[in-house]
Amino acid sequence: MMKKTGLRLMAAVALGVASFYSWAAAEQWPGARPISIIVPWTPGGLNDQMARMIAQHLSKTLNQPVIVENKPGAGSIIGS
């Protein structure tokens, strides 16, 4: 009997916590800030060009500015 009560209590707590997370996920969209795509390689390369093409399409689709930031160095660890 005690196991069922404990199980119900844990289920109720989990449901309550999950409901708070949905409020955080439903925050303002689109946001006031632009979306950033970080490319861990130098500008002008193939990866940079692909990221800029993706950013252009995302910007049209989401009606929000999308910025490509290049952060090269340290074997691309900085951009990771």
Would you write up a description of this structure?
The chain is α+β, with helices and mostly antiparallel strands and 80 residues long. It has a single domain (2-76), classed as Bordetella uptake gene, domain 1 (D-Maltodextrin-Binding Protein, domain 2, 3-Layer(aba) Sandwich). 51% of the residues lie in helices and 12% in strands. The protein is built from 2 helices and 2 strands; from the N terminus they run αβαβ. It has a two-stranded parallel ribbon. β1, α2 and β2 (66-70) form a beta-alpha-beta unit. It is elongated.
CATH homologous superfamily - what is it? Bordetella uptake gene, domain 1
Helix content: 40-55%
Major beta-sheet overview: 2 strands, parallel
Multimeric status of the protein = single chain
Q: Using the alpha-carbon principal axes, give the shape.
A: elongated
Order of helices and strands: HEHE
Gap between N and C termini: 51 Å
Task: Write down the CATH class.
Answer: Alpha Beta
Brief overview:
With 80 residues, the protein is of the alpha+beta class.
Throw out a few tags for this protein.
single chain; 80 residues; D-Maltodextrin-Binding Protein, domain 2; two-stranded parallel ribbon; 2 helices; 2 strands; signal; BUG
Topology:
Blueprint: H1 2-25, E1 35-39, H2 46-62, E2 66-70
Parallel strand pairs: 1-2
